Amino acid sequence: MTILQIYVAPHPVLKKKAEPVTGGVTAGLRKLMDDMLETMYTSDGIGLAAPQVGVSKRILVLDIHQPKGDTLTPAERRTKPQFFVNPEIVQSSQDLRIYNEGCLSVPGQYADVARPDKVRVKYLDYYSKEQEVEADGLLATCLQHEMDHLDGILFVDHLSTLKRDILMRKLKKFTKENEEDLEKTHVL
Ligand code: QAP
Ligand code: CO
């Protein structure tokens, strides 16, 4: 297993539209997804999209059932990992839900974002099998946040220009103040 480097905004790889996976989920892609999952657990995340590790492909991993505690090992964090390849929203609810979102590519920053409360998503699973899931609650929010990454969109892009500018300034300050720690695990 390899821990990958996480790209921090405003890196250009985070702004690119990612390419669909063609030819199914190969052993190489499974290895990438395993590494992404390990990277996510190591950084205390609940979701991670391939562009965040510099790979412009339509792949994401998540595990929203994270036990509390910051001293847990990646193995102890592993509860219900989920893998999504070429995910597509086929239906979304009119009702919105607000979550205070964060992002491993926007370290130390959080903001409220409104998104559809329920979504139906079609995707290929870890074994390249076509699946469809009806997601609500945190799963729906997390899936939409991660799918945004595949289109080069960050949660800050859902904020007003003023709120986004303030948050991006804070991010700049945060990365500067934590540069020594961050540059081991992130691409600044
Ligand atoms: C996306 O985000 C998400 O700033 C996943 O210092 C977030 O895992 C979807 C994280 C909230 C729905 C609700 C962020 C860890 C993790 C940080 C994450 C940090 C350490 C973010
Ligand atoms: Co994110």
Textual characterization of the structure:
With 188 residues, the chain is α+β, with helices and mostly antiparallel strands. It has a single domain (12-184), classed as Peptide deformylase (Peptide Deformylase, Alpha-Beta Complex). The protein contains 5 helices and 9 strands, in the order E-H-E-E-H-E-E-E-E-E-H-H-H-E. The protein has a 5-stranded antiparallel beta sheet. Strand 7 and strand 8 form a beta hairpin. The structure holds 2-phenylethyl (2E)-3-(3,4-dihydroxyphenyl)prop-2-enoate (QAP) and cobalt (II) ion (CO). The site of 2-phenylethyl (2E)-3-(3,4-dihydroxyphenyl)prop-2-enoate (QAP) has 15 residues, from strand 5 and helix 3. Cobalt (II) ion binds next to helix 3.
List the helices and strands and how they pair.
Elements: E1 6-7, H1 27-42, E2 47-49, E3 59-62, H2 74-77, E4 82-92, E5 96-101, E6 111-116, E7 118-124, E8 130-136, H3 137-150, H4 161-177, H5 179-185, E9 186-187
Bound molecules: 2-phenylethyl (2E)-3-(3,4-dihydroxyphenyl)prop-2-enoate (QAP) and cobalt (II) ion.
Cobalt (II) ion binds next to helix 3.
